[in-house]
Design a protein that fits this description.
Layout: E1 2-6, E2 12-15, E3 19-23, E4 41-49, E5 54-60, E6 64-71, E7 74-78, E8 83-86, E9 90-95, E10 100-106, E11 113-120, E12 130-135, E13 145-150, E14 157-158, E15 164-170, E16 175-179, E17 185-193, E18 196-198, E19 201-203, E20 208-212, E21 216-221, E22 225-233
Parallel strand pairs: 13-14
Antiparallel strand pairs: 1-20, 2-3, 3-4, 4-11, 5-10, 6-9, 6-11, 7-8, 7-10, 9-12, 13-15, 15-22, 16-21, 17-20, 17-22, 18-19, 18-21
Length: 235
Amino acid sequence: MKKVIHRANSRGHADHGWLKSFHTFSFAGYYDPERINFGVLRVLNDDLIEGGKGFGKHPHDNMEIISIPIFGAIAHKDSTGKDKVINTNDVQIMSAGRGIYHSEFNASATDSANFLQIWVFPKEKNIEPRYDQKTFDPSERKNRFQTAVSPEDKEAVWINQDAYFSLGNLDKGINLDYKIRKSGNGIYAFVIKGEVKIDDEVLQRRDAIGISETNLLKIEAVSDAEILLMEIPMN
């Protein structure tokens, strides 16, 4: 088993006034040669956006881009014609493929919004750009893991990669096992709220741990907690 721990206070930080962003991996003006990626997981940004503000139209290609609101809502428009609002309890994925333009703005003119934007290298390059979004019932992740992103689960949003994202809302004292679905995959666990113990490591709000060369993850909720598990190929 191999593991790497990324504490919340070790992340890169950018304060643009309207945007406060924390970068788990090297991004924009933040660069750390030791933190380029974890397997095919390339970007994990924790963005707080003021009301009425956002990212204007900009391009992407050959990247799987996942957006998960923590609170608030994000208005999305892209060059495929999609014009959607991503609300709390929604998960959105955009396969940039051979090239796409999109914009993301806080859907509220007054209230701030917080969302995770995650980039994963694709399995196949230069595919037709595509968009998927679903609303997930939070009761379905109470003291268990709810699959939100998958290449094969029809209840999840589809991803062009052998990757599986799961969300869990755990009560204090709950113990859960997570079994790796595809041999050779690693797991990157990000604590959204609360405190958990994974592989005897105590992780608090916005801490993360990446574990590879294992088939099973043991997770204990030290307090009430919300957690995102990202199972991804390591090569």
